[in-house]
């Protein structure tokens, strides 16, 4: 199955920076926010949220260096 | 039926359907928060634009593609109508609570919510939201139902990118005249050759950045509901808050500083974001506007910090930097979040005059064209400066000399330069004219001696620049009815960069060949 054939999110994912990591961050983002809303602030959720933000920044820099 | 009316009707119908979609999606919020009394209001608010939109788009589905004139009229009229329909949840929820029907529970009325029983206040809030202004008719956002807190943030988030851009991403197909509409909504940059693909990429970037913003705000200590709302309105540089004292409520330096990169992200053009995500980081300094976003924010921050520190507004350099950097970036990115309020510190309206005028100047220019910000935009200010320098230095060259002006890597010949300079000069002149008119009208309406000239200039610049910072004039009681109408106009023309609204008014007055 091609990525643009996925239901609902297919067209959206096809539109991005054509990078699977960014696409994954896009899909994981709302799930993580949902988990935080349900579980609340704990070491695990704080760590996950911080990891998401740090990973996003680090990956942008990594792509920049590789480019 | 006139061909132009059919085209305009068809495209307006699509916009209304997209708006109805937003309202139907928002029904999830009262379900999650148990505010069941808000569900009928949202349903009715969604059904009205859906029915009108469906009728228009199916009745005129064979209409021709929009031309430039149609595009501008659709943009101007569409944004106004969307603001009207967007005000329905405010009015209907406020009246639902006012009547408190037993079958829907017994929600308690507050003076904040009761203000929306006046449709003008609701329309003001909706226009402020969609245009990303952030001036508000509420006096305490905290007591609003979660549904309305969400709706305010949501319309700002959508308005930051644009209602037409939303409609194009969902409903338009290649070759449907989307480019004309896209350009009428104060956008011109393309990421891909296809405009539909361009707007989808814009949404992709915007949604990803929204998640990053929400999670960043939560990590630095903001509660999750606040992080969701402020992440959305911060990135959209709208500035609506869910707390009474905007960001000052949290009184946290970490949150203040975390919002700076979020607002800055919102003030950089989407095509540049796309290139950066593709790995081309050079654009952070190679792109003229992006480079100047940082230079302009840096200079403004330094100046404002110095003014409030030397003026003894704050007693430590760090505090002066904290408030100076936040308020300048909040103003220049047109976000309009406030940290300088009486409850926690010295309110913005009581800052030294020169500091208030520095913030006003920040609002006037704004950030990069092609981003979510308002104002005149950096590229226009730079075109004007470069054009003036080009004209003056012209005297020093022989008449036969062939000269070109370099702007953002483009080498413009005499005719291209004239065209760019003329466009920038016209929009700047119109912007200043309407700033003057707004100031004049407000000076006539407001009680003598209550507000200073810089307060009034600040407030009008804030409305027209779609910023939302307030010197204390805007409010359900403090702003007279005519002042609210004036601000509705200022916000509307500010978002669409004036010309489409003038085109609509001309067409309305002279019938513009429409029928």
Output mean pLDDT of chain B: 89
Low-pLDDT sequence parts of chain A? none
Helix content of chain A: over 70%
As a percent range, the share of strand residues of chain B is under 5%
Tell me the distance between the termini of chain A. Answer: 29 Å
Computed Rg of chain A: 14 Å
Quickly give the structural class of chain B.
Answer: mainly alpha
User: Which outline of chain B best applies?
Assistant: globular
DSSP E strands of chain B, number: 2
Q: Summarize the main sheet of chain B.
A: 2 strands, antiparallel
Terminus-to-terminus distance of chain B: 8 Å
Q: What is the count of DSSP helices of chain A, taking H or I runs of 4+ residues? A: 3
Judging from the principal axes of the Cα atoms, what is the shape of chain A? Answer: flat
By oligomeric state, this entry counts as heterodimer
List how many beta strands of chain A DSSP finds. Answer: 0
- What proportion strand of chain A? under 5%
Helix content of chain B: 55-70%
Low-confidence stretches of chain B: none
Q: What's the SSE pattern of chain A? A: HHH
Helical stretch count of chain B?
Answer: 23
Membrane topology (chain B): Multi-pass membrane protein
Pfam family, one (chain B): TrkH
Transmembrane segments (chain B): 12-33, 39-57, 69-95, 154-172, 202-225, 257-277, 289-310, 357-379, 424-446, 485-505
Family (chain B): Belongs to the TrkH potassium transport family.
Overview of the structural elements:
The complex is a heterodimer of chains A (67) and B (515). By secondary structure, chain A is mainly alpha-helical. Chain A has a domain at 41-66. Helices cover 73% and strands 0% of the residues of chain A. In chain A, helix 2 (20-39) runs antiparallel to helix 3. The N and C termini of chain A lie far apart (29 Å). Chain B is mainly alpha-helical. Chain B has two domains: 1-185, no CATH class; 191-431, no CATH class. Chain B has a two-stranded antiparallel ribbon. In chain B, a hairpin with a 2-residue loop joins strand 1 (405-407) and strand 2. Chain B starts with a helix and ends in a 5-residue tail after the last helix. The model of chain B has no long low-confidence stretch (mean pLDDT 89). Chains A and B meet through helix 1, helix 2 and helix 3 of A and helix 11 and helix 14 of B. Chain A: Keywords: Membrane, Transmembrane, Transmembrane helix. Chain A: The chain crosses the membrane at residues 21-39, 45-62. Chain B: One of its GO terms (molecular function) is monoatomic cation transmembrane transporter activity. Chain B: This is TrkH family potassium uptake protein. Chain B: Belongs to the TrkH potassium transport family.
């Amino acid at each position: 199955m091609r990525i643009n054939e996925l239901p609902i999110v297919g067209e959206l994912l096809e539109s991005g920076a054509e990078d699977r990591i960014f696409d994954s961050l896009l899909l994981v983002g709302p799930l993580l926010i949902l988990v935080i809303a349900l579980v609340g602030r704990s070491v695990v959720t704080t760590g996950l949220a911080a990891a998401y933000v740090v990973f996003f920044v680090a990956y942008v820099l990594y792509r920049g260096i590789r480019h | 039926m006139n061909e132009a009316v059919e085209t305009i009707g068809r495209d307006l119908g699509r916009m209304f359907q997209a708006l109805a979609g937003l309202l139907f999606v928002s029904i999830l919020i009262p379900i999650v928060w148990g505010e069941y009394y808000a569900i009928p209001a949202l349903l009715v608010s969604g059904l009205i634009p859906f029915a009108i939109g469906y009728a228009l788009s199916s009745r005129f589905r064979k209409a021709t593609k929009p031309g430039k004139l149609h595009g501008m009229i659709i943009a101007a009229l569409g944004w106004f109508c969307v603001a009207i329909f967007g005000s329905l949840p405010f009015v209907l929820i406020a009246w639902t609570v006012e009547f408190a029907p037993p079958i829907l529970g017994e929600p308690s009325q507050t003076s904040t919510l009761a203000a929306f029983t006046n449709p003008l206040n609701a329309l003001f809030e909706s226009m402020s939201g969609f245009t990303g202004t952030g001036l508000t008719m509420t006096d305490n956002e905290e007591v609003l139902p979660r549904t309305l807190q969400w709706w305010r943030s949501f319309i700002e988030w959508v308005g930051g990118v644009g209602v037409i851009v939303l409609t194009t991403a969902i409903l338009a197909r290649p070759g449907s005249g989307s480019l004309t509409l896209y350009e009428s909504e104060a956008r011109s940059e393309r990421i891909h050759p296809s405009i539909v693909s361009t707007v989808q990429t814009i949404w992709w970037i915007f949604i990803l950045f929204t998640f990053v913003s929400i999670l960043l705000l939560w990590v630095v200590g903001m509660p999750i509901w606040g992080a969701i709302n402020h992440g959305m309105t911060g990135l959209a540089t709208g500035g609506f808050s869910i707390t009474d004292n905007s960001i000052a409520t949290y009184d946290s330096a970490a949150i203040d500083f975390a919002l700076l990169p979020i607002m800055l992200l919102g003030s950089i053009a989407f095509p540049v974001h796309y290139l950066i995500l593709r790995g081309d980081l050079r654009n952070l300094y190679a792109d003229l506007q992006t480079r100047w976003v940082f230079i302009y924010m840096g200079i403004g921050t330094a100046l404002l910090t110095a003014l409030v520190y030397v003026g003894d507004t704050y007693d430590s350099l760090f505090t002066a930097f904290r408030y100076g950097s936040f308020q300048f970036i909040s103003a220049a990115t047109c976000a309009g979040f406030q940290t300088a309020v009486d409850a926690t510190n010295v309110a913005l309206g009581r800052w030294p005059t020169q500091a208030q005028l520095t913030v006003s100047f920040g609002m006037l220019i704004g950030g990069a064209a092609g981003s979510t910000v308002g104002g005149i935009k950096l590229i226009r200010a730079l075109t004007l400066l470069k054009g003036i320098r080009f004209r003056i230095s012209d005297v020093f060259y022989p008449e036969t000399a062939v000269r070109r002006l370099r702007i953002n890597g483009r080498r413009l010949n005499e005719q291209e330069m004239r065209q760019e300079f003329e466009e920038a000069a016209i929009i700047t002149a119109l912007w200043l004219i309407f700033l003057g008119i707004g100031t004049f009208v407000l000076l006539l309406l407001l009680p003598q001696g209550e507000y200073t000239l810089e307060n009034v200039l600040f407030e009008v610049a804030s409305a027209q620049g779609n910023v939302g910072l307030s010197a204390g004039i805007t409010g359900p009681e403090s702003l007279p009815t005519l002042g609210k109408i004036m601000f509705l106009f200022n916000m509307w023309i500010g978002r669409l960069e004036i010309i489409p609204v003038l085109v609509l008014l001309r067409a309305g007055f002279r019938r513009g060949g429409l029928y």
